[in-house]
Structure formats: C-alpha cells, structure tokens
Amino acid sequence: MEYLLKSILCSFTFLVVYKLLLEREKMFVFNRFYLLLSLIGSFLIPLITIQLAEKKYSYSVEDRHVLTAYYTEVFQSHQLTPSLDSGFEWNWEIGYGLVTFLLLIRFTKSLVTILSVKKNTVVKQDLMNLVLLDRNVLPYSFMNYIFVNKEAYYAHTIEPEIWQHELTHIQQRHSLDILCIELIQVFWWFNPCVYFYQKSIKMNHEFLADEAVLLAYPEVKNYQRLLLSKVSQRVSFTSAFNYAITKKRLLMMTRMTSRFRTVVMQLSVLPVLAIAIALFSSAEYAEAQTAPATIRQDPDNATKTQHPASKDGVSDELLKEYQSIIDRSWVKGKNGYEIRHFSETDRSRMKVIFDQMSQQQRDSQKIIVRYVPPLKRQSPTQKELDLWKNPKMSGIWIDGKRVSNEVLNNYKPEDFSIASVSKLEKNAINYGKHYYQVDLMTNKDYEKYLKDTQKEPHYMLYASDGDWTRKVNK
User: Fold this and answer.
1) Closest CA to 159 of 229, 212, 60, 236
2) pLDDT tens, residue by residue, 10-66
3) CA proximity to 386, closest of 394, 378, 376
4) Cα dihedral 201, 9, 184, 40 sign
5) pTM: predicted TM-score of the whole model, two decimal places
6) For the chain, what are the domain ranges?
C-alpha cells in the first residue's frame, strides 16, 4: 500500500507541474514525451532505494554461523502475529483483480470493435487506409486507418485541412500513446491522476495536429472557422474533433512562446524530477540500522567446548551410515542444501558419529556438525536506541516478544546484553511497514540463556560449502 500511495502522489506532482508550467506553452513535442515519461516514472521512482551513510561490515564464517543459530533459538522461535491489515489487503486484492478484469474485457472489446474494418469498404493508399462508413460521422483516425463517411468521401466534401489533421495523427503515431494510457488505466484505475493524464495527452495530440495543419495551410482564421463549424462524435481510442477542447485549440493557435521561455520551462523539469526522487523514493540508513555489530561469539568458549577430532576416525560402516542419513534427509537445491525430512534420532546420530571422526573424515563430509558458542555480551549504544524508536523504520522485539517502539523510552543501553538488527525483504515488510527488525535481549534473559547453553550446548548442521541448514542440539 505504501508503494501505491507514493506512485499516486508522484503522478499527481508531475501532473500539477504540467498543468501549471507546461500545458499552455507551445512546445508540444516536449510535452508529449513529458506526459508519457512522467507517468512511467511514477511507477519507477517509488521503487528506487537510496542508501545513505552506507557502511559495509564483514563477517567471518563463525559470525554468520552464530548469528543464524541465535535467530533460530531465540528470535525466530516464536510465531509472529499476523499484520492487522492483512484482511484489508486480501479484500483489496480481490476487488482490484475483479475491477481490472472487467476493464481489461472492455478495453479488448473496444479495440476489437474499432479494428473490425473488414465489414466496411477499405481504400488502401500510400500513407493510410481509408475505412468508408455508412453512418454520418466526422473523420477520425486510429493507427494507420482514417474512418470517414462514405457519402462525404465520394462527394469530395471533406476539407483538405481535415485530411491533414488526421494524417498527422497517423504519421506521429498518436494512437500508440492512446493505447498506452488506456492500458495503464486498466491496471491503475484507482489512481485519479490517470484520467487527467489521458485528457492531457489527447489534448496535446490535437495541438500537434493543428500545428501541422497550419504549416501546410497558414491561414489561421480560415482553419479556426472550419473547426467551429464541426461537431464531433466521441469514439474510444480516437482523437476526434470535440467542442469541449475547441476553445483551447483556438487559443493555442495564436499563442507565441519565445525560445528562451521554452528552454527555461524545459529545464524546470529537472529540479522537479530531483524533488520527486527525494520525496517518493526509499532511503536506507545502512550504518545506523543494518550492522549487527552487537552480536559476538566467545572464541575461548568455542575452543573449549568443540569436540576434538579423533586420531583413528570411525569405521567405513559408520561413514556409510552418516552418508545415508544425508542422502535421505537433504537435497541439493538452488540455494544450497535443503532438508526434506529430519528426525531427532537422525540428528543425534549424526552428531555422535561426527564427534568420533578424524579431521580428514570430517573435511570430506558434505554436511558437518559444529558447536555454536554462546553469544558474547555487548550492549547497544544510546544513538542506536534513539534510531530504533522510529516505528516507520524499525520493528522491536524484546526477549522474543513484539513490543511498541515507544517501550524503548523505558530502557537504557546497559539494560540489554544483546542487540541484533536484520533488514526485512520487501515481501516480508509488515507490522506498520517497517524496514528493519530489531531484536533485543535483556540482562535477565541473557543470564538465563547462558545457563541453558551451559546445560545443553548447541550445535549447527550446515553444508561444508557454506550453505546453511539447521541446528542440532546435543
């Protein structure tokens, strides 16, 4: 929902700039591309992520190893409560899909109807195809077809200015713009700005066609009188003459824009683009948010508790048993080894056999067992706590429980023994749409954690090539 809101506001910003600065200026080609590109930009700009104060952190295999074990044991063991707006999002998806489907049917039906020219007489010419209609309509064009009344065509009563007007629409491929905006409207129908974009694009097409007519037939007053004498019939996807826009067209024919003013107006788009990117893109505060620098292991404890490799190793039968557990429990996937099914018995048996292996036997295994030492105590800083109080950026868990960001006002940095920050993927952003998950462990919970790890040391089963699998206990 945040992306949709940003894209709508972005399109509104570009549209306001067009209405205030560009629409009344005689720079129709520039305006044509501005309208199309700004609409596309409204989709893309909210997807831009600007990384601020970036600071990269490097981690050893053990660091990643301990961090994974820690999340598995403490922070990700509890079931996260579903987002409060999940029901609304589900209803929105159903409603959006239904409306979009109906609009797509209407779009397809209109397109098929207007292109069903075989039942009419078609006169092929070099630059266009004339479709002769029995009904009394004024000429209009779509793609490389000009639709005209059959009787008026054979009577040669269609003015040359009208032919030139519709031919310009064909030569400049205005129908592609119309198809583009109509298709965008099918999928972005909830954005009111799209409808104003549609009107502005069609109006600009008329300005372009009028400009071409006046280059060929410079008598402005004659052409204006001709327009006033015409009445249009609205046909989907076409740029027909219309009373609603005739007044603007007449005024634009006599309007003058100096070269200097044109350049200034065009250059004014650049700061607008920069402002739109600044307002509607996403910013990541990497240094303040993403570094789990407070997660540390105790290397001395790791050395003491890791079961040393035996000198003689295990028998071939035990090696085959170890491999058979791997073969039936793991599968090599795109993202590394994945567990298919794994019992407590298999887990314990693999550790027993691995503990008895020689170092050479251990090095040859695809899946190995490693001791996970307790995390070393290190409190966050006051600056980090202050940053984490922002609910738009961070979600807070204390001792494995989801809490409000305001709760941090009741704590000091020294109240916590462990702090960890993890960036959420786009499809996992929830709980108020924050971008980072902050997991904190209080001193009391940390002491309990240390006692538990002393009673029951933790081990990790993981692939020897670095692709992680899952934890195994002693």
Assistant:
1) 229
2) 999 999 999 999 998 999 999 999 999 999 999 899 988 776 654 443 333 333 334
3) 394
4) positive
5) 0.56
6) 65-80+292-474
